[in-house]
Amino acid sequence: MTFRTHRRRFLGQSVALSAATLAPAHLRSTVAAETESANDRPGLALVGAGRMGHNHMRFAKGMCDVVAVCDVDQNHRDKAVQNLSGGKARGVNDYREVLNQKNVDVVYIATPDHWHAKILIEAMFAGKDVYCEKPLTLTVDEGKQVRKVQQQTGRVVQVGTMQRSYLDLFVKAVAIAGAGRLGRIHRATVSIGGSSVSGPIPTAKVPTWLDWNQWLGPAPQSPFRLVADPKADEWNLGKTNAHQNFRWWYDYSGGKMTDWGAHHVDIACWAIREAGQSDELVSIEGDAKTPVPFADGYPTKSDQYNTAHSFAMLAKMKDGTELQINSEGRNGVLLEGDRGRIFVSRGDLTGAPVEQLKDNPLPEDAIAKVYRNLPTPYNQHRNHWANFFHCTRERIEPISDVTSHLRAIDICHLANLSARFGRSLRWDAETEQILGDDEMNSLLARPARSGFETDFS
């Protein structure tokens, strides 16, 4: 299926999605269902069929056909092929095979973080549109590469920061800020929880169903580690440096800072921008505790989780706005302005400016304006996928775009560097360099392991 025929085939569906946005709530499900004909679905390749990739596909159900599944864990791969395609999808170990598969229109990347940028870049060069779980990057330098290639290729890339499609919570909170109901925002506080701790984890024999070398990919060479948990499920295994617990190792992720931080820092920055203020970073300082000692920015022990488990980091913007990132506190985003404050989480939206909406509602187009007047046939996760497919058809920027995501996630990356070195930093947004600190600047990029360099052709 060529891109041209794919786009022509979806023009009618685009009109239906727009109608769904304008239709009364009780008619939206009917209108949306009519857009999901079995003949109008793009072919999707899932790369990374662990818990998140496997489960999140349920939100895209009906909008696409899963034609390929790639995972280095044979058990995960086989399960996804059966559950997501009834056994029809092609199962492979190497993602490059699906990038060359002609019936693959879009790629969904749900691998561990250290693989994201490489697969994303190569998928864009292969002519695929991409939905990639957050964060897009492991380092600031990867962000520069991703941004350049996305602009060069014009591919549609949706970041999996699906809170941007929580219309009645996060989008509404941003709309409140954009409507001036908070006044000037002087501080945003995001509480995201801390990373897990483990104690020493011994090396273990690599299971026969896991291609460990391919799992590591561009990350440094490291032995497989595991303390098995008899209560763990197939997704988790136990305390390990693989599968879900990759998040607690700086070789593969940035801990909670880039996990939940990717969500909440993004919302805070979005609200700040909608309020007409600057989210251009100038400095970060704070305190952090890590499970193991660090020297020169690197953990001194390699046999246990090492991402920061306790932190209170303060980022300052060009116009003086402050962004506090905490491991403690109730999970969510607190926006404080000179006219009021609101708190928003995945469960509620509270504060005096919210209560005042009863007597002084937002303008009718406030939510639509914040959501770029894009179709909203659903809410939350499912709408995020619908937004992606709509934008691939129309060749327009999705709600979770590369540029805004990188502004937020780079703050998280830099907060991690401040935590790893135990000192503050000053940031030059023009040069994308840390001022006066060569040691920190050396960790803005990371060389890929030999044989796993990114293909930029």
Automatic annotation (TrEMBL):
InterPro entries per UniProt: Gfo/Idh/MocA-like_OxRdtase_N (IPR000683), Gfo/Idh/MocA_oxidrdct_glycsds (IPR050463), Gfo/Idh/MocA_OxRdtase_bact_C (IPR043906), NAD(P)-bd_dom_sf (IPR036291), TAT_signal (IPR006311)
Looking up Pfam families in the UniProt record yields: GFO_IDH_MocA (PF01408), GFO_IDH_MocA_C2 (PF19051)
The keyword Signal appears for this protein: yes
Q: Where does the record place the Gfo/Idh/MocA-like oxidoreductase bacterial type C-terminal domain?
A: 202-453
Alphabetically sorted, this entry's keywords are: Signal
User: Which interval of the chain is the signal sequence?
Assistant: 1-25
The question of whether rRNA-binding is a record keyword is answered with no
Q: Domain Gfo/Idh/MocA-like oxidoreductase N-terminal: where?
A: 45-160
Superkingdom of the organism of origin? Bacteria
What is the protein name given in its UniProt record? Gfo/Idh/MocA family oxidoreductase
Source organism phylogeny: Bacteria, Pseudomonadati, Planctomycetota, Planctomycetia, Pirellulales
